[in-house]
C-alpha cells in the first residue's frame, strides 16, 4: 500500500520471549533486545504474543519487564498471546507496572482493535487472545486499512496455514487473510524461528524468538524502498 507522504520508520518486531523467572535466559534476551532497539534507533517495538510464558509469573518479573520497556526510545505495542492470554488475573492486569509505562500499549480487544500512533504515522491492528480454549482465529475480521496517510501494520499470534492440512486445531492464519488484507506489514508470532510467510502483495513475517532462536526482525518502512525486513541475531554484535 503506497500513500505518498509517509515518513520512513524503523520497527523492531519480536515475539515469544516466554519470560518465566527473574534472571533467566529470556530476561537477558529482553535486555539485549532493548539495547539493540536503542542502538538501531527504532521508532517502535512490536511484541507479537507470548512475552511471558504464563500468567502466574512473579510480580518481580513483571516489574523487571516494565522497567526494561521503559528504557526503550519509543513506543511499544504488546499483543497478548496464547501463553499470556488476556483472561481475568492476566499478567497484563497487574495495574501499577503497566500504568507507569507511558510508552507501552497493550491490545485488549478480543475481536480486534486499532491502535493509532499519529506521532509516528503508524496505525496498528491486533486481536488479543482472551481464552485458553481453541477456535481462535487471529486475523479473522481484520478491516481494510483506512486512508489516513499512515503506515498500516497488523499483529497476529498463530499458525500460518497454507495448502497442507493444519497440525493444530486453532490459531489458524490463512494465506487469503494475509493477501487480501491490504496492510503494509503483518507482524506474526507463535513460531520461534524467523520466517517469511508472504512477500507480495503484503509482507508477513515471523520474527522468531530472541530467547529460543536468537532472532528478531528489523522492519524498515519507506515510500521509495517499500517494506524491508531483515533478520537480526542477538548473539551477533550490534551492527545495524
Plain-language structure description:
This protein has 240 residues and is α/β, with parallel strands linked by helices. It has one domain: Purple Acid Phosphatase, chain A, domain 2 (4-Layer Sandwich), CATH 3.60.21. The chain is 15% helix and 30% strand. It is built from 4 helices and 14 strands. The strands form 3 sheets. The protein has a 6-stranded mixed beta sheet, with no helix packed on it. It has a 6-stranded mixed beta sheet with strand order 5-6-7-10-12-11. A two-stranded parallel ribbon has the order 8-9. It is globular, with a radius of gyration of 16 Å.
List the helices and strands and how they pair.
Layout: E1 9-14, H1 25-39, E2 44-47, H2 59-70, E3 75-78, H3 95-99, E4 104-106, E5 113-117, E6 122-126, E7 151-157, E8 159-161, E9 172-174, H4 175-179, E10 185-189, E11 194-198, E12 203-207, E13 215-222, E14 226-233
Parallel strand pairs: 1-2, 2-3, 3-4, 6-7, 7-10, 8-9, 10-12
Antiparallel strand pairs: 1-13, 5-6, 11-12, 13-14
